[in-house]
# Entry
Amino acid sequence: MADHYEVLGVSRDATPDEIKKAYRRLARELHPDVNPGAEASERFKQVTHAYDVLSDPKQREQYDLGGQGGFGGAGQGFGGFGDIFETFFGAGQASRGPRSRRERGQDALIRVEVGLDEVIFGTHRDIEVDTAVVCETCHGSCCQPGTSPVTCDICGGTGSIQRSVRSLLGNVMTSSPCGTCRGYGTIIATPCVTCQGQGRVRARRTVPVDVPAGVDTGVRLQMPGSGEAGPAGGPNGDLYLEIKVRNHEVFSRNGDDLLCTLEVAMTDAILGTTTSIRALDGDVEVELKPGLQSGEILTVKDRGVTRLRGSGRGDLKVGVQVVTPTKLSAKERDLIHQFASSKKAPAPELSHFQQGLFARLRDRFLG
Ligand code: ZN
# Structure
């Protein structure tokens, strides 16, 4: 078992952020969608497992203390007495009878990219996953059809070998896994040809996924039992989907609200009008009141994103930018002059510097 820190290429005192960054970088490189090779797939699994452990503070602490349970950590504290511990408590699982070939399959992580428009109401995807599935020839038994595992002659089916050993404390019985059957207690004499006795084969599988409304980048959806099939007919692991929401060229998002900017002609801003906006979920009528100002925000209730938790939808927020005409005909220029002379305009007024209208709009959206 490789060291989780080495697998991720980080130091033992790496911060959670460094661990996350290392994982993201490796996952991008090794993800089965990008890198379909068997070796990459194996490394991807290792990297994902290492990240699962090290990203969880509790698991990381346990791992740092000595990892996979057992006496690894304590053994260090007791110097050379580790083997005596083993003598007392039995080596690993040997005293608990033969171990099972059946194991739970690995979890898998797949990245799913969706558009902002798909997030409003949720969407459906059929996702292709490179995974392990139960072997159809042996149905997970690992044996050629018509055959079955035979009891190991060497350990008599117990999976372990008992020996009497002389120690500091007198004669004690020690047990270790049987080398012939590797602790399974049985031997597969005629392994299934299709899966080479693994009980599962690699395959590309299509997983139908309902992406719920309201998900955002970074959300992980767990699909229990949709991960890899385990060895020897073991249960499936889980499939995790990490969502990425693509940026949209017009609309952006703040929580469950959708944001956009509407450019309004100066004359419309002065006189007021009604206009139609092409929102992500269809057209929206917006009333522009006479005297509309740049930086004003028009709120269209319940036209944002459907809430992931709870019910209802966020709002659509439309920031107004009044556009000053730049190319005027002589006649238009004349009309503006007439307008200007008809009433005395107030002098330009000084106020705090603002980083452009967009920054101002954003501040007001988020403030
Ligand atoms: Zn098979």
Summary: The chain has three domains: 1-55, 66-245, 252-348.
